[in-house]
Amino acid sequence: MTDDPSPEQAWSDLALTELRERREALLQEIGQLETRRGQIQKEIETSFAGQADAMARRIKGFQDYLVGALQDLAVAAEQVELVPQQLLVQPSPLDQPAQTGTSPEPAPAGPATGLFNQDEALIRERLAGFGGQPDFYANPWQLRRTLDPGGAALLTDWFLSQGGRGAQASCGSRSRNALVAAAAIAILGELYGERFQTLVLASQPERLGEWRRGLQDCLGLEREDFGPSSGIVLFERADALVERADRLEERNELPFIVIDAGELTIEVPILQFPLWLTFAAGPGEIASDESY
Question: Given a cut of 80, is residue 138 above it in pLDDT?
Answer without folding.
Answer: yes
